[in-house]
Design goal:
Blueprint: H1 10-21, H2 27-33, H3 38-41, E1 45-46, E2 54-55, H4 61-64, H5 73-107, H6 119-128, H7 138-154, H8 168-177, H9 184-194, H10 203-233, E3 239-243, E4 253-259, H11 262-271, H12 275-283, E5 289-294, H13 295-305, H14 316-320, E6 327-330, H15 338-343, E7 349-352, E8 363-364, H16 372-386, E9 401-405, H17 409-415, H18 418-421, H19 425-433, E10 438-442, H20 454-465, E11 468-472, H21 474-482, H22 488-494, H23 497-506, E12 511-513, H24 520-533, E13 545-549, H25 555-567, E14 570-574, H26 583-597, E15 600-604, H27 607-624, H28 644-654
Parallel strand pairs: 4-5, 4-6, 6-7, 7-8, 10-11, 10-13, 11-12, 13-14, 14-15
Antiparallel strand pairs: 1-2, 3-9
Helix pairs in contact: 5-7, 5-9, 5-10, 5-25, 6-7, 6-10, 7-10, 9-10, 10-24, 10-25, 11-13, 11-16, 20-27, 22-23
Length: 661
């Protein structure tokens, strides 16, 4: 990995170099120019009242430093960290709230441009919620499901609805330590109250509330969003697409959807191919309309429709700098306000679409699910009209890579045994036998303060080389996609012998793209299903599994890392620690959390050490579970791995008239 490069993606680096030659500033330049405040970066600055900000520094700051009110350094670091968790949870869960209310609007006939696409997933969710669905009208079931899910936001007492989806032993740990969420909004509100001046000053007590708030994200907000999106637009199954800047077409209108909420993007997918839209594009001199995605909205439409992706967070400015994007729609989260000014140097129309988010200098067309198609057509026409305004200015890229995405919980279950024998037993058996050493969730943002996407790429190649199966989401998945890593051929070329054998037998890549950042909830349900299947740990904690966010930058990433740690997964974040100033807070996140929940949260800037830590956690978990010691190429006895053709033959013999899920 070239540490002098701004991006590990050579196509991105090409655009960055072009921009530098033309005097165009990007996030990479600003990251070089603006150095992080070392006091704030380490968690030693308190800004929660106007007696400060107080900087708790000095040789013995941990023991002696005090703010004006008397707050200690561990208290300040814990409060700062807790507020990050609250913000991240609020972001994911506000997204989920919108999805739940859209489901309700569809069920009651108020959002006529949407429909229930996956009835089977609706019934599955109804089962989790103890809602009767047999013999009932689909929209009636959907209404009950939506209302039950909406309860999770405002509930004041009791427990979140999806708690029962976790293994019983995991639930017992949560109850023992008092971290079961009551309601999403209540936990976020209480967190903000506790971190106000003069309230909670015990670092452990503060961080325990942080875990409860994070669990409200993972096991409610994010999980609700994943399930509702599947119900409305379909549960993903493997689909082939393309990634990188070469997806943009010189002779077609290029419309890019960027952000996190899938409602508008899905509507654009629906109407962009209408004959009227195509004819209008041709009347303006274009051969057609090329729809593409960026960031997590890209992942949503990639997973379900094979819409190509231009990559993750750090690629948004670079996409505009190709000079080929006619319109870029944005909604919420991870949108750089710099794109509005940058677009003026080109011809791109930047269109904000959420009532929650506007950018000075951008056009605003507010999305309303009650007239979704009307708004989608308006946006498409703006992109078409702008096609004629393209300039011969920009760095055009032709390189692109094939991508296989669409690995939902349901499909991973199906691919291991087919419709009638679906289970997680083959995966468990492969881990028990040592063919698969363990599993890593490789997620999180990409960051311009390191060679962007480089840490994802390094860890992805090294982990699969060591027979570690990777499940990936969000910008981490985008980083793998734009590197060409999301294909079955990747296993043949790079994976260790055991992982390669499993991938060949099932017909999958060694890195499974699970969706957007809210779809980290799929990893939780997969881990729960593996525990339920038996043979490994009877809870999520203790499994040979690790979470890694090597280039994280957002508060959402902190919330995600904490809900995995609370669920029993050791998590390693790249970069310097936001609580580094306090040894006590660091001890709580690592040692105390591991003792209580079998999960922990580490921060490590060295990618070689991240790899070493992850493999060490996996090997120690295998040893504690008394599994066969991992030895490359040496496997224990296990079930015969059947390929997809053999499983389909079994299905045809059993039920020749039934199709697959």
């Amino acid at each position: 990995m070239d540490k002098a490069a701004k991006s590990a993606n050579k196509e991105a680096e090409q655009i960055i170099d072009w921009g530098k030659a033309h005097g165009i500033e990007t996030c990479f330049d600003r990251a070089e120019k603006i150095k992080p405040c070392p006091i704030g970066a380490s968690g030693a600055c308190c800004k929660v009242c106007h007696m400060g900000p107080c900087r708790l520094v000095g040789k013995n700051a941990e023991e002696e430093a005090r703010g004006v009110c008397g707050a200690t350094l561990p208290t300040v670091a814990a409060r700062n960290f807790l507020r990050m968790i609250a913000a991240g949870t609020a972001a994911h869960s506000d997204h989920a709230r919108g999805m739940a209310f859209t489901l309700l609007a569809v069920a009651t006939g108020q959002a006529k441009d949407f429909k229930i696409t996956d009835v089977r997933k609706l019934y599955r969710v109804a089962g989790y919620l103890n809602i009767e669905f047999e013999g009932r009208e689909v929209n009636a079931v959907a209404k009950d499901v939506a209302e039950k899910l909406i309860e999770d936001f405002g509930r004041q007492r009791g427990e979140i609805n999806y708690l029962k989806r976790a293994p019983k032993k995991t639930q017992e740990r949560w109850r023992k330590w008092g971290i079961i969420p009551r309601g999403i909004d209540r936990e976020v509100c209480e967190t903000m109250h506790r971190t106000h001046i003069g309230v909670d000053h015990d670092p452990d007590h503060l961080l325990t509330q942080g875990l409860r708030t994070a669990l409200a994200d993972g096991w409610a907000g994010s999980m609700i969003s994943t399930d509702v999106t599947d119900i409305l637009f379909g549960t993903p199954q493997p689909v082939k697409a393309e990634a990188s800047f070469g997806i943009f077409k010189k002779d077609e209108v290029n419309l890019v959807v960027h952000g996190h909420e899938p409602l508008l993007a899905e509507t654009i997918v629906d109407v962009v191919s209408e004959p009227e839209m195509t004819a209008y594009a041709k009347s303006k001199g274009a051969k057609g309309i090329n729809l593409a995605g960026m960031c997590c909205t890209a992942n949503e439409v990639l997973m379900r429709h094979g819409i190509p992706t231009a990559g993750g967070f750090t690629n948004q400015e670079l996409g505009i700098m190709t000079g080929l994007i006619d319109a870029l729609t944005v909604d919420v989260q991870c949108i750089m306000p710099a794109i509005a000014d940058l677009s003026k140097k080109f011809h791109t129309k930047v269109i904000t679409t959420s009532e929650k988010a506007k950018i000075q200098g951008a056009m605003h067309i507010e999305f309303d699910e009650h007239r979704a198609k009307e708004i989608a057509r308006e946006i498409i026409k703006i992109a078409i009209d702008n096609f004629q305004n393209r300039k011969a200015y920009g760095e055009h890229i032709t390189e692109k890579f094939p991508v296989i995405a669409g690995f939902s919980h349901e499909y991973i279950e199906y691919m291991q045994g087919g419709k009638w024998r679906a289970s997680f037993r083959p995966l468990n058996d492969a881990i028990i036998a040592g063919r698969i050493r363990g599993v890593v969730g490789l997620a999180g943002c990409d960051n311009p303060r390191v060679p962007s996407t480089g840490l994802h790429r390094f860890l992805a190649t090294e982990l699969i080389k060591h027979d570690v199966l990777i499940v990936s989401t969000g910008c981490g998945a985008a980083a793998c996609g734009t590197a060409g890593y999301l294909t079955p051929e990747m296993a043949l070329e790079n994976a260790g012998p055991g992982l390669r054998e499993v991938c060949e037998a099932i017909g999958i890549p060694p890195i499974l793209h699970l969706g957007a950042c809210v779809d980290n909830s799929r990893i939780l349900t997969i881990a729960s299903a593996m525990a339920e299947e038996g043979g490994l740990s009877d809870e999520i904690g203790g499994m040979p599994a690790v979470g890694i966010a090597p280039e994280w930058m957002s508060e959402k990433a902190i919330a995600i890392g904490c809900y995995f740690a609370a669920s029993g997964v050791p998590v390693i974040f790249g970069g310097e620690s936001p609580v580094e100033a306090s040894k006590e807070v660091t001890r709580i996140l690592t040692e105390v959390w591991f003792e209580r929940f079998k999960g922990a949260l580490h921060f490590e800037p060295d990618p070689e050490k991240i790899l070493e830590m992850a493999l060490d956690y996996i090997d120690k978990a295998r040893e504690a579970l008394k599994l066969k010691k991992y030895e490359p190429g040496k496997f224990g006895a296990e079930r015969v791995l059947m390929d997809m053709a053999a499983r389909r033959e079994i299905e045809r013999a059993a039920k020749p008239h039934i199709g697959i899920y």
